[in-house]
Known about the structure:
The complex is a heterodimer.
Chain A lengths: L1 H9 L12 H20 L12 H15 L7 H7 L7 E3 L2 E5 L5 H4 L7 E3 H4 L3 E11 L12 E8 L8 E8 L11 E12 L5 E12 L10
Parallel strand pairs in A: 6-8
Antiparallel strand pairs in A: 1-3, 2-4, 4-5, 4-7, 5-6, 7-8
Chain B lengths: L1 H39 L2 H7 L4 H10 L8 H13 L4 H10 L5 H10 L5 H22 L10 H10 L6 H32 L2 H5 L7 H13 L6 H6 L7 H13 L2 H7 L5 H25 L2
Amino acid sequence: xxxxxxxxxxxxxxxxxxxxxxxxxxxxxxxxxxxxxxxxxxxxxxxxxxxxxxxxxxxxxxxxxxxxxxxxxxxxxxxxxxxxxxxxxxxxxxxxxxxxxxxxxxxxxxxxxxxxxxxxxxxxxxxxxxxxxxxxxxxxxxxxxxxxxxxxxxxxxxxxxxxxxxxxxxxxxxxxxxxxxxxxxxxxxxxxxxxxxxxxxxxxxxxxxxxxxxxxxxxxxxx
Amino acid sequence: xxxxxxxxxxxxxxxxxxxxxxxxxxxxxxxxxxxxxxxxxxxxxxxxxxxxxxxxxxxxxxxxxxxxxxxxxxxxxxxxxxxxxxxxxxxxxxxxxxxxxxxxxxxxxxxxxxxxxxxxxxxxxxxxxxxxxxxxxxxxxxxxxxxxxxxxxxxxxxxxxxxxxxxxxxxxxxxxxxxxxxxxxxxxxxxxxxxxxxxxxxxxxxxxxxxxxxxxxxxxxxxxxxxxxxxxxxxxxxxxxxxxxxxxxxxxxxxxxxxxxxxxxxxxxxxxxxxxxxxxxxxxxxxxxxxxxxxxxx
Lengths: 223, 298
């Protein structure tokens, strides 16, 4: 397991599983654990080693084999659908604000210094053009029918690990079905516009001016 | 079918690894401190210095987390070490339940998360301490404390007293404790990942404003997601718009004490009966605090 964790750390994939603040601590723990196990191996003749094997050991071995065989991947639209809620505040990750309609204070559009999230509800009128990165999820995420003319640009917000990851997404008006598929990572530049949905409610949607497919980022979550 | 199943399995695996990898350093820290205590602290010293008055001794154990600020995964090897070092099982239970909440890191992160209502952090730490001490005191009235732990762990306690304490003993203890706790974490994390992937969160979120159902839902969420007590306040905060304040408090009290991952790891030490009793007592306490907050805290 220590080897596996070190492998993930070296390939910059630990952040697929945990908040980036834990990456260094986890890497150091894995190195420490390997060193202790090495000492145990060297001094094995002097140490009373517990060697009784039971069925739980087989589960652990099977899982470690799976870990080696299954490629590391961040969470996808499956969990996004599982964890989304209609009541969730409409948010989107904003890589940069390209153009603002009205000049605003930085604090008004970025709730915290290290956060790149934007609460769309309050900011739609103030921001004209944004650039966002996320993966493609469909309307199913918010209990809507899959619509070939719109999708959600989605990203998870993580405070500890994948266990607490919460999705946030912004509706994008675009005929996507023949061009992209679910879970494709995209960089979208576009304009946030108020729009009325099928239930008659006003919501903010992103009208893209350009969409570029990108590889899965090293840091797929927001914090 | 396969098109859906394979990505779902991959997702369950990502959730599972998230729990394992996040817990890994805390288990290493917990096992290391446990090993050092095993080398340094002599049983005779513990027997001589631990207060005879059960209220004082359990209160002291409830405050021990202040000096050993490790989250719940790291506390399990420590609690096992306390029992080996001649602390009573009920005192170890108090430590186990209190330490994830009554520690400086959890307090600071709760204060940070609820910075507009700072009293939440104080209510959490005080209630966590009181619940842990009360449950420990209840178990302290069990005459034969060894009936609370498994036969296998009783056997470990007997074997332990015959070994000479040196660096080889420490390495052996580290290896045994690490594998014992870590493999049960595997089992717990598999169950937690499966439940997370298969139960839609909106099923539980739909009762957020109900004064009683919201508490039960947040307790269920805490039980399933098994996140670290050091940062669970931020997670609770994300539900503050849709859930009652009492239910958030129940979550922040229940989650650090009992969840799927912890129960699985505690099976290395405690009997099923003991764990069921602890779970029941913690659940009832968390519900009572949640209800009182929903009624009196506006």
